[in-house]
Amino acid sequence: MVVNMTNNAVSSTVIALLDRAKAKYVDTAKNDILSALSGFPDLTPDVEYFVYPDRTHTLAFRLKGTIPVLYKGNTYNIPVALYLWDTHPYYAPVCYVCPTPNMMLKESKTVDKQGRIYLPYLSDWSFPGYDLSGLLQVMSMCFQDSCPVFAKPNSSRLSGAGSTSAGQIQSYTPYPTSNAPGMPPYPTTPTSYYPSMPRGNAGSGTVQPEHLKASVMSAVEHKIRQRLREKLGIMHAELASIRQTHADLRAGQQKLKTIVDDLAQEQKRMEDALVAYQEKKAEISSLLSTSSPEKSVEIDHVIDACTPLHRQLLRCYVYDCAIDDAIYFLGQALSRGRISLTNYLKEVRQLSRRQFIYRATLQKCRIKAKMPI
């Protein structure tokens, strides 16, 4: 049964299964698997304890389901299973044809008796040029020449065939596809038989040269077509991989261009700031060189106001703050016994009178200067 999930759910499921299978390259393997699932949605990811060809028994990541195969003008669903190594995608997966109980395997040069699949695409596997999508496409094209599974013959049909003619040969047809989702049952088609050989030329017993020529040409044509399909499948898969790599490189080029532009703008801002700092530094150096170090500057004249009114306001404010400090330190001296209480009260009384005058003057200056009181 195939479960409909969103892309995020499928991605999360694949990552969780890869973690369970202890995959070493989770991100790269996940991208390869998701690409294969997008092209072959009838495959389902899962994990299974599996014995690899090197006799290693471990929990492996598995893709199992059906792939569509065009065979003699009809599309058939062929059940397969792909077992990935923990080093995927840098090592070719182990692939099998998984016939259902009402199917039987057909041994060929691409599928052995156990159902294991052998393809040049697997033996020549090299990532990033090879991936699961390309493998499944090549697998589908190879199965077009030799379907790996056939329907088991019906026992009643077998008995009828035997009673009809002992010399007739039975031919099995592959399972057709179904429009139902998932992996539907594959109904069998009526058993067909090859007609018996014509008897018109049976007495001669001579093989004509044109027969040999037609047979050789047919065999050569079949071999060429098979090789051509394999080559085209590999080239198509490599071309798809190159296109994906090209798209990734273009995206990376755009990102690098954006980064370079940002760095150029930042460099320009830094250069402008450096020029401004150098100009200020030169101006300060010029002022220091023209100023006389022997000339003494009174500290009270360093900071000055712009108008006489503001100068009077500043002076009253400074005196007010100074008197606050003086009263504070007189209190500290009294608490430590440095001065007597009589002297303390006398000094505080005099300072408070002066502070009152300064604060009154300060308030009048603020009003005159239209400043907040």
UniProtKB/TrEMBL annotation:
Residues 307-373 form the SB domain. Residues 10-153 form the UEV domain. Its main location: other. It holds the Pfam family Vps23_core. GO terms for molecular function: ubiquitin binding. InterPro entries: ESCRT-I_UEV_domain (IPR052070), ESCRT_assembly_dom (IPR037202), SB_dom (IPR017916), UBQ-conjugating_enzyme/RWD (IPR016135), UEV_N (IPR008883). It is found in: Endosome. Keywords: Coiled coil, Endosome, Protein transport, Transport. CDD domains: UEV_TSG101-like. PROSITE patterns: SB (PS51312), UEV (PS51322). GO terms for cellular component: ESCRT I complex. Gene3D superfamilies: 6.10.140.820, 6.10.250.370, Ubiquitin Conjugating Enzyme (3.10.110.10). SUPFAM superfamilies: Endosomal sorting complex assembly domain, UBC-like. One of its GO terms (biological process) is protein transport. Belongs to the ubiquitin-conjugating enzyme family. UEV subfamily. PANTHER family: TUMOR SUPPRESSOR PROTEIN 101, TUMOR SUSCEPTIBILITY GENE 101 PROTEIN-RELATED. This is UEV domain-containing protein. It comes from Acanthocheilonema viteae (Filarial nematode worm). The lineage of its organism: Eukaryota, Metazoa, Ecdysozoa, Nematoda, Chromadorea.
